[in-house]
Amino acid sequence: MMAYRDGWTLRRRVVALLTVALVLLLGLAAAEALVAEKNRQNTDAVLVRTGPLRVQGQELLSALLDQETSVRGYAVNGDRKDLAPYEAGLRRERDTVASMRDLAADYPDVLRELAVVEERAARWRADVAQPVITTTERSGPAAGQALITDQTRQQFDGIRASVDRLQDEILVVGQRTADEVKRTGNVLVVLLIAAALVVAVAGAVLLLSLDRILIRPLAALVGQVRRVAAGDYRHHIEGTGPPEFRRLADDIDAMRQKIAQELDEVRQARERIEWVNSQLQKQAEELTRSNRDLEQFAYVASHDLQEPLRKVASFCQLLQRRYAGQLDERADQYIAFAVDGAQRMQRLINDLLAFSRIGRLTIGFTEVDLNKVMGDVAAQTEAGRQYADAELTWDELPVIRGEEPLLTNLLANLVSNSIKFRRPDVPPRVHVSARLVDDEWEITCRDNGIGIEPEFADKIFVIFQRLHSKDAYPGTGIGLAIVKKIAEYHGGRVWVDTDAEEGTTVRFTLPALPEDVEASRGVDDGEPAAGEESTGDPALAGDGAAAPVGRQPEAGRGETPEGTTRDGTTGGMKETVG
Questions:
Q1: Strands 391-394 and 429-437, how do they pair?
Q2: Mapped to the 3 state alphabet, what secondary structure does 117-175 carry?
Q3: Which residues partner with 401 through β-bridges?
Q4: Contacts of 46 by beta carbon, 8 Å cutoff, 6+ apart
Q5: What pTM, to 2 d.p., does this model score?
Q6: Distance from the first to the final alpha carbon of the chain
């Protein structure tokens, strides 16, 4: 309480407590680091020095035994080969002693015992081994064996005793080092317990302090704020506790006063917004009704125009047949203009009706085999293909979900355009293929016609947009707009591939069935997926690349075949011009 009256802030109190705890923890951490380093050194001494020293002491004894056994064997047999273990043991002894000296550099007692072993081993070699070897070489095995007595055996037993004392000294050093490891480990544990106690005490003090100077005043302030939030905007908020909380309570009370002042304005604004929203809702409903009425009007108007146009066209054709040649040349020309105009108006109305029906009159999506659709397209365009000596081929096409009549109309429009926009004296070739790209089928219609300039690639899909005069290429300019609307109705898109080297390549996408997508994911990267697009030219694709469909023999170029009107309709399928 004295600290509170002196004006200690919450931050100052917390910082003071944390500083004391931090100083204690840093001191303990420094002591732990020193003890841990000492413990590590002792552990290394046990694992890296004393342990290997015992192993090498045993190795030293094994080398000495090899020497003694080799000398006795040579004295018995007199075979120089029996001295090979002696020489190898001598080398092993030197190497082992050198390694042990490095490991025992900090252990003088071990070095002293090691020196005793070396000195006795050297004396044994000088007093026993070398004389036996020399005598056996000069006088034979019997003379060599005579030098091996109980006294020489006792001398070698002294070497063994020296090695045992060396091992005992190594064991004593190792035990002493292990005891030091245990002692430093215990000290480290005590330091860790002390650090944990410091953390626990600091945490308890901090918790009690926060409960007194933070949680209780904050709970009181929260209660007052909730009272205001419940709707009592006239309640005065007063803070207690540290200076920060009192300032926070003053700021919240100022905000409460501002909210209370502006609340009436907000309510008035909300009422105005609600009124505006109601007016906008009425206007939106009116606009929706107006668009529906306009769409119905366009459909009815187009439909009702059919009868008078049919009558005008019929009478104009009747005049043309009955009075052709009986009037002057200009009258025949005027009648031909009237017939042509009536027919073009009929085609335009029919195409407008077809365009308006897309998405309005629906039979629902079903699974559609595009191979069957292409068969229908081939039948619809047969007359036009015979007239132009055109060839229509397609690869194996997928099954997708859609409306079969609309998809037939889409592909028929593309094929008809490919046949119509052909190069002079070049038989048209049209090829349809498909490939799976991610989760969509990309359908390609490629031809060898006159092509499309890149700058007009987007313009051709706009309704009533034409790149040629109606005299050069008849049509209404709605066909590719219908193609685009059908593709988008099925959730796809359509575009012209401007990178095609020859002719025109139109691509459109259709969503793939889930099983096709799953099947494509199981195909290795190095193998073509099912339905992958071919080269597109059946003449270049090789055997089996495409399935030619009923290529018709060349028809007479001088007249239009039966069933194909002058405006380019083929086999009853309306020719649509992009």
A1: parallel
A2: HHHHHHHHHHHHHHHHHHHHHHHCHHHHHHCCCHHHHHHHHHHHHHHHHHHHHHHHHHH
A3: 367
A4: 174, 177, 178, 181
A5: 0.41
A6: 90
CA distance 571 to 416: 10
SS3 246: helix
Mean pLDDT over 295-313 rounds to 67
pLDDT tens by residue, 339-364: 766 666 666 666 666 666 666 666 77
pLDDT, position 259: 80
What kind and span of H or E run contains 416? helix 404-420
Element (H, E) at 391: strand 391-394
* Rounded distance between C-alpha atoms, residue 204 and residue 574, angstroms: 90
CB within 8 A of 16, min separation 6: which ones? none
> Can you state the angle between helices 51-77 and 130-139, rounded to 10 degrees?
20
Tokens of 471: 């005299």
Please report which confidence band the pLDDT of residue 556 belongs to, taking 50, 70 and 90 as the band edges: very low
Residue 512, judged by CB atoms within 10 A of its CB (0-12, 13-18, 19+), counts as: buried
Q: Confidence class of residue 396 from pLDDT cuts 50, 70 and 90? A: very high
Neighbours of 53 (CB within 10 A): 25
Tell how far CA 392 is from the center of its chain.
41
pLDDT tens string 512-548: 998 888 888 776 454 444 444 444 444 333 333 344 4
> Closest Cα partner for 355 from 461, 468, 506, 496?
461
- Give the tens place of pLDDT for each residue, 32-61: 788 787 777 777 666 667 778 878 888 888
| Residue 466 pLDDT | 57
- As to burial, measured by CB atoms within 10 angstroms (0-12 exposed, 13-18 middle, 19+ buried), residue 144 is buried
List beta partners, residue 367. Answer: 401
Q: Which are the contacts of 362, defined by CB distance < 8 A and separation ≥ 6?
A: 403
What is the Cα–Cα distance from 329 to 146, expressed in whole angstroms?
154
CA dist list (Å): 445 to 15, 93, 136, 236, 438:
77, 89, 105, 78, 20
Predicted confidence at residue 565, as pLDDT, reads: 34
Furthest-apart CA pair in the chain: how many Å? 159
Q: Token pair of 423, please? A: 């190069």
Of 223 and 332, which is predicted with more confidence?
223
> Contact 236/249 with Cβ under 8 angstroms?
no
Instruction: Give the CA count within 13 Å in the CB-facing half-sphere of 523.
Output: 15
Residue 379 CB coordination number (10 Å): 15
Q: Residue 105 to residues 303, 443, 573: CA-CA distances in angstroms?
A: 113, 84, 105
Backbone region of residue 333 per phi and psi (left: phi > 0; alpha: psi in -120 to 50; beta: other values): alpha
